[in-house]
TrEMBL record:
<protein>
    <submittedName>
        <fullName>SRPBCC family protein</fullName>
    </submittedName>
</protein>
<comment type="similarity">
    <text>Belongs to the AHA1 family.</text>
</comment>
<dbReference type="InterPro" id="IPR013538">
    <property type="entry name" value="ASHA1/2-like_C"/>
</dbReference>
<dbReference type="Pfam" id="PF08327">
    <property type="entry name" value="AHSA1"/>
</dbReference>
<feature type="domain" description="Activator of Hsp90 ATPase homologue 1/2-like C-terminal">
    <location>
        <begin position="17"/>
        <end position="138"/>
    </location>
</feature>
<dbReference type="InterPro" id="IPR023393">
    <property type="entry name" value="START-like_dom_sf"/>
</dbReference>
Length: 140
């Protein structure tokens, strides 16, 4: 019998109020500025219908044009400035909580791991994207 995989959690504290963090996290014009795990990748296209039942998609691509993929799914829960839950195209679940205190916002992301890459690699990749988000959001 195969063991059930544990969800992976990553987090970061952003030096911005929740309303700003929410905007930078969800608006396609911002997503394309931060959604990459390393400098040799980028997000040339993003769309988001931010409501329960709405779809989102972000194209993630190597800057040299060698590889790209779409990361997308359907929003299940949207609580403005507070919480997002969605289901990825492959059925995995993701939960994101935004908690503001003293003008800063903690972002906690919990996601079901996929079966292709080791969990430590997945954690590192998602954390790198979150770290890139933090850098972008704090520069605004």
């Amino acid at each position: 019998m195969e063991a059930t995989k544990q969800a992976i959690t990553i987090s970061s504290t952003i030096q911005q109020p929740a309303a700003k963090v929410w905007e930078f996290w969800n608006a396609p014009e911002h997503i394309t500025q931060w959604c990459a795990a390393s400098d040799d990748w980028h997000a040339p296209k993003a769309s988001s219908d931010l409501r329960p039942g709405g779809a989102f998609s972000t194209t993630m691509a190597a800057k040299d044009g060698s590889f790209s993929f779409d990361f997308g799914g359907i929003f299940d829960v949207v609580e403005p400035h507070s919480r997002i839950e969605y289901t990825l195209g492959d059925g995995r679940k993701v939960k994101i909580n935004f908690t503001e205190a003293n003008g800063q916002t903690e972002v906690v992301e919990t996601f079901d791991p996929e079966d292709t890459n080791p969990e430590d690699m997945q954690r590192a990749g998602w954390q790198a994207i979150l770290d890139n988000f933090k850098k972008y959001a704090e520069s605004k």
